[in-house]
Amino acid sequence: MTRMMFVESSMFSELGYDEASKSLTVRFTRGQLYRYHEVPGHLWLDMQAADSMGSYFSKNIRDVYRYEKLEE
Question: What Rg do the C-alpha atoms of the chain give, in angstroms?
Answer without folding.
Answer: 11
